[in-house]
Amino acid sequence: MKIAINGFGRIGRMFLRTALQRNFDIIAINDLTTPSTLAHLFKYDSVHGGYQGDVAAEGQYLIVDGRRIQVLSNANPENLPWKELGVDLLVEATGKFANKVGAEKHLHAGAKQVLISAPAPDKEIPMVVMGVNDDEVDFSSPILSNASCTTNNVAPMVKILDDNWGIEDGYITT
């Protein structure tokens, strides 16, 4: 499966770290920052600590542990070469295209599926929280939402409480 990342802020960088640990095929990153800046931000993360592997920028590529990842820089998803690159899954991590209309721009550009890294406001977009509702979600949907970081942290605990003792009412803020 060929994966691309749109947006290389905190979420995009953490997704790349996790994906590399699992040997996922990350083929492209789209971000409006230069490859050398992206390399620096990935290598020296002030929150999660420095990346222990080799990181460099070479032309329009980010090189991580010898893996070449093409770096694109286009603000309009419809102009990205997802079809030409054969992107199977696009991780939308900018926050800017976190709704159906925005995610569909990636589909129009040729990505086969879009995973939004935030809650989508559109009710028809399935929201997946692993360990909570992943057994109920149709993963063949062209657009999926990974909910919010707060939801992903609190929902598993809430599910355990509800499954074992029941919850009558609750309120969670971020």
The fold-level CATH name is Rossmann fold
Proportion of residues in extended strands: 15-25%
The biggest beta sheet is recorded as: 8 strands, mixed
* Cα separation of the termini: 34 Å
Which geometry do the CA atoms define?
A: globular
CATH-assigned homologous superfamily: NAD(P)-binding Rossmann-like Domain
Number of domains: 1
Structural class: alpha/beta
Given the structure, what is the number of helices? 5
Mean pLDDT: 96
Q: Which bin fits the share of residues in helices?
A: 25-40%
Helices and strands, in order, run as EHEHEEEEEHEHEEH
Low-pLDDT stretches are none
Overall strand count: 10
Spatial ordering of strands, largest sheet: 5-6-7-2-1-8-9-10
Alpha carbon gyration radius? 17 Å
CATH C-level name: Alpha Beta
Explain this structure:
The chain has 174 residues and is an alpha/beta fold. The protein has helices spanning 10-21, 35-43, 82-85, 100-108, 149-164, and strands at residues 2-6, 25-30, 44-45, 49-50, 55-58, 61-64, 67-72, 89-92, 113-116, 143-145. The protein has an eight-stranded mixed sheet, with helices on both faces. β5 (55-58) and β6 (61-64) form a beta hairpin. The radius of gyration is 17 Å and the shape is globular.
